[in-house]
Amino acid sequence: MRLAFATEAAPGRPNEDFAGATPNAAVLLDGVGTPVGSDAGCSHGVPWFVQALGSSLLAGMSRDEDTSLTEVLADGIKAVASLHDSTCDLTHPGSPSATVVMLRRTASAVEWLVLADSVLLLDVVGTDEPMVICDEREALVGEPYRKAMDALAAGTPEHVAAHRAYVETLRDHRNRDGGFWVAAVDPLAADQALTGSVPADTVKAAALLSDGASRLVDRFALASWREALGLLALTGPDELIKLVREAETSDLDGARWPRGKAFDDATAMFWKFF
Ligand SMILES: [Zn+2]
Fold it and tell me: Which of 93, 100, 109, 113 is the most buried (most CB within 10 A)?
């Protein structure tokens, strides 16, 4: 078994992604940033939130294999909320939140959980294309609101304002039926995650990608999922992130690939089982 990961903040900002692993469990979180000029009701910030939640999830996944990943996530959300419910306004719609990917290997199975728009790839024996697991509810809910932002050149004050308006509009749909679900304060969000398991002896490798890394494939279309897996196996997660940064640098104003952030925190984990 070999597990490698790389994580790189967007230039000039703290990293709001989290990656961590034990010999049998991996966790990737992508914290939802608070745009400049927006309030979040929390004095701790998103990097604190993802580190507190990520380490709680890793501990919970390793403690007891009979506890489902859904239960581990619900318990983790509750535990982190209890760390700051006396000092922060956890009813604030912008309180820190994160996407979640959890992967655990037991003697018999590889179990997974995906909440919101980070990507999990499973390279399964006997199939040409990897299994791609991504929760697309936020993208679907956000699509009608993206147009104003995507029409503007990235890096301009107008684009910054449109991005802030987009993020604040989406907050109204967060953790609601008919909207999209992320790990924030409400443990019921765990029940909304995509989950599953595959027999342990059928999974050759897995990749966990924050959307800042998966954009090489799903936004820039510069590689297929199969090619991304090959790249991770051959040259490693840092090389994949380097390709993302080169693409972003070649399109700073977002003319070719409209996007909310010219650069995003990027995290890639690659777990080779056999
Ligand atoms: Zn707080």
Answer: 100
